[in-house]
Amino acid sequence: MRTVQDLLSEYVLTHDLAEETIDYYKRMISVLCAWARRRVPLRMFTVNLVNKMLVDKQRAGLSAYYRKSIRSAMRALLAFRLGSIKGQLRPVRVDPIEVEVWSAAEVQKLIDACRYMRDERKRRWWRTLIAVGYYCGFSNKDLWAIVPKNIDAKGIVSIRRSKTSRPVAMRIPLPWLIEIQPLIDGGKPIWGLPMARETFRQTFSRVVRKAGLTGSFKKLRKSCGTSVEMLHPGQGHLALGNTRRVFELHYFGRKALNADPMGPDALPEPPKGN
Q1: What percent of the chain has pLDDT over 70?
Q2: Domain ranges in the chain?
Q3: Strand extents, DSSP E, the chain
């Protein structure tokens, strides 16, 4: 008997997907099977079944963003199986995301918070990763993959994003370019990932707490994009290598814009008196 796991295997074979995207689909299939309390047979994988699950997840109080993520995966797999989706897939209404970012001063607090690390090389690894993450706006996966040949003598880093293959070029300021030199070992990745992903997450969380801040590593990427957008209106998405719509929905911290709103040319001074 064929199941949704078999369908996913076929989907992966016929689509050029990043590893994290494959993992995402696997997680969503696991959610479906856990909800159904069985490995869902392919004949039962219908729009009606997915709608029932979305209703149950809503009644259970799960967030709209989580339910929308489930819906997106199910929609792609249903369309793959059926050629087109027959029936109305239940919509998920979400409110706009309030994107939170760090200021340059707060990023400096993160860098300063690395002082608690006793090992000098570990301290340099984290300090430079945070600084370059802010200046370049790359995801942690793209940062870990940077090799010396990606960086020219002026500090310009040129890569193709692992998730979208879009070319991106950003600049590392000279002081930080000098700071990373001791980490360079031939043509190997400068940062790589010399620890388990969970260890990376936990260590960064500790740095954030010591800095008196909140947020995950991805917040550096959002902070970079927002800062570029404020300095160069309309170009934040180009810096991050994503579409304008994705940037505005998920990466642009509009509070920064509200704190320093744009305006038209100034009018003449109002007349004095009456």
Answers
A1: 95
A2: 4-82, 104-259
A3: 156-160, 167-171
* Torsional class of 155: left (φ above 0), alpha (ψ -120 to 50), beta (otherwise): left
Instruction: Give the SS3 label for residue 160.
Output: strand
Q: Choose the CATH number for 104-259 among 3.40.1010.10, 1.10.443.10, 2.60.40.10, 3.40.50.880.
A: 1.10.443.10
Q: Closest Cα partner for 60 from 34, 86, 88?
A: 34
**Token pair 């995402």: residue:** 24
Cα–Cα dist 133/200, whole Å? 14
More confident residue, 250 or 54: 54
Which value, in Å, is the radius of gyration of the alpha carbons in the chain?
A: 23
Among the listed residues 27, 136, 133, 34, the one whose alpha carbon sits nearest the alpha carbon of residue 77: 27
Task: Answer yes or no: is pLDDT of 259 > 70.
Answer: no
Instruction: Judge whether residue 12 has pLDDT over 80.
Output: yes
Question: Rounded to an integer, what distance in angstroms lies between the CA atom of residue 136 and that of residue 144?
Answer: 13
Q: Output the CA angle 237-238-239, nearest 5 degrees.
A: 90
Q: How far is CA 165 from CA 73, 161, 162, 221, in A?
A: 21, 5, 6, 17
* Tens-place pLDDT, residues 183-241: 999 999 999 988 888 999 999 999 999 999 999 999 999 999 999 998 888 899 989 98
pTM: 0.73
